[in-house]
Amino acid sequence: MTKPQEDNQESTTEYEAHSGVEERQGHLLFGFICDMRIAVVFVNVFNIFAISVGIIITGFQFKTFSAAWYAFENGFLGIALSIVGALGALNYVLWMVGAATAGFAIGLLIDLFGLHLIGIVVGALVLYPHAFLAYEIHEGIMSKETYTREEHIVENDFIKV
Question: Which residues contact 42 (CB under 8 A, 6 or more apart)?
Answer without folding.
Answer: 34
